Each structure stands twice: as structure tokens, then as C-alpha cells.
TrEMBL record:
It comes from Clostridium thermobutyricum. Residues 4-113 form the HIT domain. The active site is at residue 99. A motif (Histidine triad motif) lies at residues 97-101. Gene3D superfamilies: HIT-like. This is HIT domain-containing protein. The lineage of its organism: Bacteria, Bacillati, Bacillota, Clostridia, Eubacteriales. InterPro entries: Histidine_triad_CS, Histidine_triad_HIT, HIT-like, HIT-like_sf. It comes from the Bacteria. Pfam families: HIT.
Amino acid sequence: MDCIFCKIINGEIPSKKIYEDDMVYAFYDINPEAPVHFLVIPKKHIKSANYINNENSKYISHIFEIINKLASELNIDKAGYRVVNNCGVDGGQTVEHLHFHVLGGRELKWPPG
Ligand code: 5GP
Ligand code: ZN
């Protein structure tokens, strides 16, 4: 499948990996928007949040367990951080493989643009 995040998971495209298990892969964003900016993705190709369903939602709960663990390991848990999912064109999604951004290490503004 011609998906850059599937290629990152299978090693065809190099990445700065933070964590991996049988369900998820976490790696630093190539274009960081904060001192800490990584992405957590399911190893199963799910196109966007629109495609989360009863069959695959176990990936989502696991992703959030891993976000929690990695935020603690990278020392952004106490100060706080933001988890972002961009969905579809208006949401600003540019890669059509479900991913959660985790941003921390600075105070983030709200609302987003
Ligand atoms: P989106 O805009 O779809 O929510 O986020 C896609 C993110 O993936 C962007 O923040 C972009 O910097 C990141 N990205 C795109 N291609 C690559 C890549 O090849 N490697 C890494 N590490 N990040 C990527
Ligand atoms: Zn994919």
C-alpha cells in the first residue's frame, strides 16, 4: 500500500522511533511544532478518525495508554501536553493513516487556527 506511515512502520522509510509493540508505533514528527512532538499510530492501516469502529477501537484505547506512558518517560506529563488528531481536509489531515500528535515542552495556545 502506498502509505508513508505504513512504510515507516515496516522500515521502508526511516524514522526516529520512540516506542513500538504489536499494535502501535511512536516516532518523532519530522517537522516539530513544539520541543516535544511525536506521533503515535496504529500498526493497522486506519485511514482517519472517521474509520474508527467497534472492530478496531482497541487500537485507540491502547494508543492512549502508550501516550500516557511516553509522556511520563519524556517528562511532559506534569507540565502537561496536547494530543491532536486532524481528521479530513478541514481538520488539516495530510497523511491518510490515523495518527495522534503529542505536543509538549512549551505552553500551547488555544484555540488553534
Ligand atoms: P497531519 O497534518 O496529517 O495531522 O500530520 C502529519 C504529520 O506527519 C506532520 O506533522 C508531518 O510533519 C509528519 N510527517 C509527514 N511525513 C513524515 C515522515 O516521513 N516522517 C516523520 N517523522 N513525520 C512525517
Ligand atoms: Zn498506512
